[in-house]
TrEMBL record, chain A:
Transmembrane segments: none annotated. Residues 416-468 form the SpoVR-like C-terminal domain. Residues 163-196, 211-245 are annotated as: Disordered. It holds the Pfam family SpoVR_C. Residues 7-413 form the SpoVR protein-like N-terminal domain. Residues 211-220 have a biased composition (Low complexity). This is Stage V sporulation protein R. It comes from Caldinitratiruptor microaerophilus.
Automatic annotation (TrEMBL), chain B:
SUPFAM superfamilies: vWA-like. This is Sporulation protein YhbH. Pfam families: DUF444. Residues 93-112 are annotated as: Disordered. Residues 98-108 have a biased composition (Gly residues). It comes from Caldinitratiruptor microaerophilus. PANTHER family: UPF0229 PROTEIN YEAH.
Length: 487, 396
């Protein structure tokens, strides 16, 4: 980038920042860094300028680079939730592209700073992650690359299963365990004194407890009966005996951290660091539609207020349209988010706009503000596979079903709920997991390949109960093979 | 307070994390390919490729497995251009789109992150051939027969009298005389003289000969022919990539044997009965006429379905023994497409006959029952000797 272009970009960003401030956006100090494509792809693949090394990031990096080289996709920018806020621009972008992106990321930063889900995020995560990256390198030297890599493989396989919201009963759950107190990592018991604690955790009870109870059981004696008897009974009986003390948790990483019997310190560090990275990224997954919609809304407005030449206006229009192009096969969050926000402003005024960006996440955003009119106008629909065809199942005339279908898809960021129920199943130190089945089955192929990863961390047999074809089934990995048993 | 900002372009050239992890990923892809080599080796698209193609091999172990929903069984959200109705088909499984608009491109549909590695046949060969070699190769054979060649490489102003380059000398004289206004070749003065110089080059001559013999009779079914060709496909590539100086002769036989071109060998089939002795006779004749055993490392390989004319068997055994007298190794590969193994039904095959009658340290026989045993056969013949010996013993 020539000095002249650099100076021009600096001037433009100054105006963009002024304009954004006037419009009411409220964001951290900004650090714009101009980088070559390779660096942008690295950050895109890792989600951060420096993160621990793992082959899966290399795989993602390779794919992004290929997509770029074949002209399939481009990343123009990357913005990091931090204070000051780091934004990385591609050095091959045109000046106009960089202007639009600057306007876009300033709005992202406003969102990071103001949306409630980001309030507790670590704004110095850049350094935390860099420090962890250094420790992983050290572990590799100390314990061997293959061992560290194998453990990272296992942790990454379940890294999505954290509980993003503080659970007042966590301490109690850990303390109530038979041997929780013996473990140095275990928390102290006795914090379950809040009489309203149950209320906060209603959503945690329901899927885990209700689903299996309602699911039909195979009848008759023989293996089925035996399986039933040896099944979830001990934990359930125990749960009854101890009242509300035992809670299933969907924070698998925390559960393993506190209870996996044979973890070494470096493994604990990895488990807990990957968990905090997951928690750090979590709000971004929960607000993808809002965040992209918000940034698109503001980049459009700010750009309109800049004095663009006719050529620049045309280029901007083209770029804006490309970002917002809808797809027949999945949702474009930029497009949907922008339309919902515009609709909110038209109906309730600008002040409401800022309130929504503060108090909602995608699930409530869709539930509250995706109207019949929008579903019709945007021609949203649900589709599914029928034989060898992908068929539309609900169209906009069934708008509530479409809205609810979308909410289902983005609930828990699209991940299934997996609850850790028992750390001492059958009194043999086995781990019992339960899928909080809500009508959508798990992929059995991936499931049988993920269980061994959990086993690697736990070190003893691991069970997962789920529902297939309306019947409960249990998968078990004992260190040698995965077995599937109908219950 | 006003928001502050900076715009900088740092030097990121030392930031290589992406590339480094990508290398680790590629390393793992290689490992995964190596672990699945037996399956990949006999893939149809490789054997029928021209050998230059990039092939795609599914690498399951490098997918990042998660607990996730079965996307085939769940509803997804899409967005149309205004008139989408329930019941509309937006795509078919084979990827063709319905109606207007573009079809789902790769990765456009809801679906799996399914990893396919790309690898060239040459790279794949490298992995397969890593620990393969011609067994019992005697480097002393024909060492002095490496032919010496002279090539006139340069023209200089000094040199040996006998090496005067007459043409260049006359041209120089002509040039010089012309400059003085007299365009002719004499007089020639010492400055005009040009000398040729030469370089000595050694061209190693073939010292190993592989005789690829294949049964192309009517009893060889699709599977048998496919396996034999898959084996020879890799054998030929292996020999050519590892050795500069191996000659391969292709012999096909039914009741009669004849030498065929490489292309014919890999494409043509025949019909009729089987007389293995015919191809052994041809091999022995070739050796006698062209490859004195004292000068050449000789490797006859014979692939068949084991089904030989019973009356020919004693002669076949005799000739294999004769070949073993002059060869570094004799390899016999029997393809058993019936999966019957060494059952009663198969007890009369060449394999059982040979392994019973021929006790020779350099006789290696192997049975191939499925596609993924092609690699085992390659290893049995060309692998490190201990391994090959084991593989050979297992069959016995």
């Amino acid at each position: 980038m020539t000095a002249r272009v650099h100076a021009e970009l600096e001037d433009a960003i100054a105006r963009i920042i002024d304009r954004a401030g006037e419009a009411g956006l409220d964001f951290f100090d900004m650090r714009f860094e101009i980088c070559p494509a390779d660096i942008i792809y690295t950050f895109g693949a890792y989600g951060m300028p420096i993160r621990f090394s793992h082959w899966s990031f290399g795989k993602a990096f390779h794919r992004m680079k290929m997509d770029h080289d074949y002209g399939l996709a481009r990343i123009y920018e990357l913005v990091i939730n931090s204070d000051p806020c780091y934004a990385f621009l591609l050095d091959t972008n045109t000046l106009l592209q960089n202007k639009m992106i600057a306007a876009h990321v300033v709005a992202h930063c406003d969102f990071f700073k103001n949306n409630w889900r980001f309030r507790d995020t670590n704004r110095k995560m850049v350094w935390t992650m860099a420090a962890f990256a250094g420790r992983v390198r050290q572990y590799e030297q100390e314990y061997g690359r293959d061992r560290v890599e194998r453990f990272l493989d296992a942790v990454l396989a379940i890294h999505e299963h954290v509980d993003p919201l503080p659970d007042p009963d966590r301490g109690a759950a850990a303390g109530a365990s038979r041997d929780g107190a013996q473990r140095p990592g275990g928390r102290a018991a006795g914090s379950d004194q809040d009489p309203y604690g149950d209320l906060w955790n209603l959503d945690r009870y329901i899927p885990a407890a209700a689903a299996p109870a309602e699911a039909p059981r195979p009848e008759g004696a023989g293996p089925g009966a035996r399986g039933d008897a040896s099944r979830g009974e001990p934990p359930r009986a125990e749960a009854g005996a101890r009242g509300a003390a035992r809670r299933p948790t969907r924070d698998l990483l925390l559960f393993l951290l506190e209870r996996a019997p044979d973890l070494e310190d470096w493994q604990r560090d990895i488990l807990s660091s990957v968990r905090s990275e997951s928690l750090y990224f979590r709000p971004q997954l929960e607000t993808r539609i809002m965040n992209e919609g918000w940034a698109s809304l503001w980049h459009a407005r700010i750009m309109r207020d800049l004095d663009l030449t006719p050529e620049e206006s045309l280029e901007f229009a083209r770029m804006h349209a490309a970002v917002l192009a809808p797809s027949r096969f999945h949702l474009n969050p930029y497009h949907l988010g922008l339309h919902i926000f515009s609709d909110i402003e038209a109906r309730y005024g600008t002040e409401k706009l800022f309130e929504v960006r503060e108090v909602d996440t995608d699930v409530s955003f869709i539930r509250n503000y995706l109207t019949r009119d929008l579903v019709e106008r945007l021609d949203l629909y649900l589709f599914r596979k029928n034989g060898d065809r992908w068929e539309v199942t609900r169209d906009h005339s069934d708008w509530e079903a479409v809205r609810d279908g979308l909410v289902r898809l983005i609930s828990n960021c699209g991940f299934p709920y997996i609850y850790a129920e028992d750390h001492d199943y059958q009194k043999r130190g086995e781990l019992y997991l339960r899928h909080g089945y809500e009508g959508v089955e798990l992929d059995p192929h991936d499931l049988t390949r993920t269980l061994p990863h959990v086993y690697h961390i736990w070190g003893r047999p691991v069970h997962l109960e789920t529902v297939e074809g309306d019947r409960p089934v249990r998968y078990t990995y004992d260190g040698h093979e995965v077995q599937r048993r109908p219950l | 307070m006003a928001v502050r900002f900076t715009v900088t372009s740092e030097d990121w050239s030392l930031h290589r994390q992406g590339q480094m992890d990508q290398e680790r990923h590629q390393e793992k892809v290689r490992e995964a390919i190596k672990n699945n080599l037996a399956d990949i080796v006999s893939q149809e698209n490789i054997i029928t490729s021209d050998g230059r193609r990039v092939i795609r091999v599914p690498i399951r172990s490098l997918n990042e497995y998660r607990f996730r929903f079965n996307w085939q069984k769940r509803e997804h959200v899409g967005q149309g251009s205004g008139s989408t109705r329930a019941g509309d088909v937006i795509a078919r499984e084979d990827g063709t789109a319905e109606g207007p608009g573009r079809g789902p491109g790769a990765g456009d549909m809801p679906g799996h992150d399914y990893y396919e590695a790309e690898i060239t046949v040459d790279d794949l060969g490298e992995l397969i051939f890593e620990d393969l070699g011609l067994p019992h190769l005697d480097p002393r054979k024909r060492p002095d027969l490496t032919s010496r060649q002279y090539r006139w490489e340069d023209v200089r102003k000094q040199g040996l009298r006998a090496n005067i380059d007459k043409k260049r000398t006359m041209l120089e004289a002509l040039k010089r005389n012309s400059l003085r206004g007299v365009p002719r070749i004499h007089p020639i003065i010492p400055e005009d003289l040009r000398y040729k110089t030469w370089e000595e080059r050694y061209r190693p001559e073939t010292s190993a000969v592989v005789l690829a013999m294949m049964d192309t009779s009517g009893s060889m079914g699709e599977f048998e022919k496919y396996i034999a060709r898959a084996f020879f496909f890799w054998m030929v590539r292996f020999l050519r990539s590892k050795y500069d100086n191996v000659q391969i002769r292709f012999l096909a036989h039914s009741t009669e044997a004849r030498e065929v071109t490489e292309e014919e060998f890999f494409t043509k089939g025949e019909s009729g009965g089987t007389r293995c002795s015919s191809v052994y006779e041809l091999a022995l004749r070739l050796i006698e006429e062209e490859y004195p055993p004292g000068e050449y490392n000789l490797y006859p390989f014979h692939f068949s379905d084991g089904d030989n004319l019973a009356s020919d068997n004693p002669r076949a055994v005799e000739l294999v023994k004769a070949l073993l007298e002059v060869s570094n190794l004799f390899g016999y590969g029997e393809i058993d497409g019936h999966g019957a193994g060494l059952s009663y039904y198969r007890s009369s095959t060449l394999y059982s006959l040979y392994t019973r009658e021929i006790r020779h340290p350099r006789f290696v026989a192997t049975v191939i029952r499925s596609r993924n045993e092609v690699l085992d056969a390659l290893r049995a013949f060309f692998g490190p000797r201990e391994v090959a010996a084991l593989a050979g013993r297992e069959e016995r």
